Amino acid sequence: MFVPNRYFPPPISQLLGFSASPRLCGLSLRGFFGRSFFLGAVLALGVSWAGAAAEPIRIGEFSSLTGREAGLGQYTHMGVQMAVEEINAAGGVDGRPLLVLAEDTQSKAGEAATVVRKLITRDHVVAIVGEGASGRCLEGAPIAQRAGIPVVSPAATNPKVTEIGDCIFRVCFTDPFQGTVMAKFAHETLKVRRVGVLSDVASSYSLGLAGFFRQRCIVDGVELVGEQKFSGGDKDYRAQLTALKAARPDALFVPAYYGDAGLILLQARQLGLTVPVLGGDGFEAPELVQIAGAAADGAFFPVHFSTSDTSPRSRSFIARYTQRWNKAPTGVSALGYDALNLIADAIRRGKSAEPKAIRTALAGTTGFEGITGRIAMDSERNARKPASIVRVEGGQFRFLQSVAP
Amino acid sequence: MTELLQQLINGLSLGAIYALIALGYTMVYGVLRFINFAHSDVFMVGAYIGFYLGPRLGAGTVWGGIATLAAAMAGSAVLGVVIEKLAYKPLRNRSNLTVLITAIGVSLFLQNAGQKILGANPRAFQFPVPGGGQQRLFPETQLHFRSLTISSNQVIVLAVSAVLLVALWWIVHRTRIGTAMRAMSFNATAASLVGINNDAVISFTFALGSALAGAGGVLYAMNYPSIDPLMGTLPGLKAFVAAVLGGIGNLPGAALGGMLIGLVETFVSGTRMSTYRDAIAFAILILILLFRPAGLLGKLRVEKV
């Protein structure tokens, strides 16, 4: 197609109004949650009867439910949806059920702003859980900031996200932190002296993370022998990898989302480039291993939440999640779950479901016990949390070490 | 030197796929004078046919791979003909612009129906081994020549493309239907006056072009094993550019254009300029069109009023 995607009309599901009816039943779902939607609707329906017509609290969600990073959005959404179901089953927040209105950014630039505007002006949400991908969060969040609606991002790690304004929060660690952690890990644990970087020019996440990694490498005296760029969704990275291979690095740093990363790992091994590959939290999705197969083995990346975490809280979450969705959670599922629970907690603490009160309560979060760790908001509205570094072994993400900020 | 040769191989295997898709654009243009924008989505459907039929046809072996490829080509050919009959044929006597917009509509329909039916999440293009584990469409090995590493997949892409190009040349130049296609592209009215069934030729052209797109889809998915319903957009755009670059309506031009785009992209990606890959590829297109408005091998037609 020669027309840039952003000028295309909305997907047919939108035009035909597929999403109109589920609204009534507690959860608005667009996209591909046919079965789960049905279940969710039945559950939520039961709750709203029990809640005896109390006006629901409307919370928005925007994430990449379809498109290239659909894994990211869908896993987040499953976490959010599970949190809502649990809260509503327990009687809601101060007697009022929660109603989550989910919008899809289709993993592409230009959609986030539109859907956030829609959530605020048409759906009148009081708070938003939104977009794990930094680039699209940066697009949508400023609109919420202007309207004074608090946004809690589950997994947008780019530092600029919370710099947008005092309404934007996150429950994950940031890129300066994970970039530094991975550079230190390469230098100290893997004894890397020469490193090559392959980053995605179309992603704020990737460029930011590459920059923080590079800064730390300079501090540590690790030599940057090659730096190559691609554009998200390219599929062919052989040219860049061939050039990187010629520079003879000891390791590669590839800040990319799992779809690109899987193909990069595969093609690197096909070209005989066998050095360790380090990534960012965007690597974490089962699709990474499905695409790269055995080529994924030996990749290292930081995660927000490790399924090998043995605390009772995590154990119980993993068990409930697996039972609900028939698959194991990923880091973003846990972050989505935490983000929604944090908003519910803020509504309880502030004793009000007004955006302003929620914002104030969120900013005052000091000791919220989440699945991904204890969350306390600093003055920049970032949660300070440790990262766990994992290594891919036989298709499994094996926990290596935890690094505190 | 090694790096240069390695990049040459990378570029050729990418260019071969662009060439296969570009041929479909150019053939339809040659016969009907419009750009079939749904072509890039037939390419996507081809990859999905391979994905679903692969396990039943014995993917993982050479013959299974060839059978899967043939099935994808057949399925895509049928889809191409169906699209032509349902969407384009009723508009046969309307302006080209109407058909062009319809083509964009068909493309959007296929993309969104694909997301609805096939799922929006990217899938790994590989097949379960009965005993556990995953395998690719063709058995895969790495061939080493000194410090050069060539994936057997890249060799297969080049070989299959070469075979298909020769077969296409033979059909167009050595068969009756091929002669009819050429006659129609020369002058459709005159062709019908001498007894050529235009509808049959158009259907055949769509079948042929779509079969090539289907093969391209499977080869692309094999080389870059992550498929999603929007996967056709970018390669389709590049192939369209390749067809224009070579001279739209000209078959060898499309093949040449595809190879050129693949090589330029790969060589630019391998330098410090990798950020500007698409910009440079398209700048070359603009330059060539400035000096040769009909494309590299195209001939200018004078519009008679």
Report how far the terminal alpha carbons of chain B are from each other.
Answer: 55 Å
Number of strands of chain B: 6
Structural class of chain A: alpha/beta
**Assembly state here?**
heterodimer
Tally the helices of chain A.
14
Largest beta-sheet characterization of chain A: 7 strands, mixed
Order of helices and strands of chain A: HEHEHEHEHEHEHEHEHEHEHEHHHEEEE
> What name is given to the CATH topology of the largest domain in chain A?
Rossmann fold
Look at the structure and give the CATH class of the largest domain in chain A: Alpha Beta
Can you tell me the number of structural domains of chain A?
Answer: 2
Would you give an account of this structure?
The complex is a heterodimer of chains A (405) and B (305). Chain A is α/β, with parallel strands linked by helices. Chain A folds into 2 domains: 243 residues, Response regulator (Rossmann fold, 3-Layer(aba) Sandwich); 129 residues, Response regulator (Rossmann fold), CATH 3.40.50. Chain A contains 14 helices and 15 strands. In chain A, helix 10 runs parallel beside helix 11 and helix 13 crosses helix 14. The N terminus of chain A is likely disordered. The radius of gyration of chain B is 19 Å and the shape is globular. With 305 residues, chain B is mainly alpha-helical. Chain B has 11 helices and 6 strands. In chain B, a hairpin with a 2-residue loop joins strand 4 and strand 5. The longest helix of chain B is centred in the N-terminal third of the chain and has 31 residues. Helices cover 69% and strands 5% of the residues of chain B. Chain B has a two-stranded antiparallel ribbon with strand order 1-6. In chain B, strands 2-3 form a two-stranded antiparallel sheet. The mean pLDDT of chain B is 89. In chain B, helix 1 crosses helix 9. At the A-B interface, helix 3, strand 8, helix 9, helix 10 and helix 11 of A face helix 1, helix 4, strand 1, helix 9 and helix 10 of B.
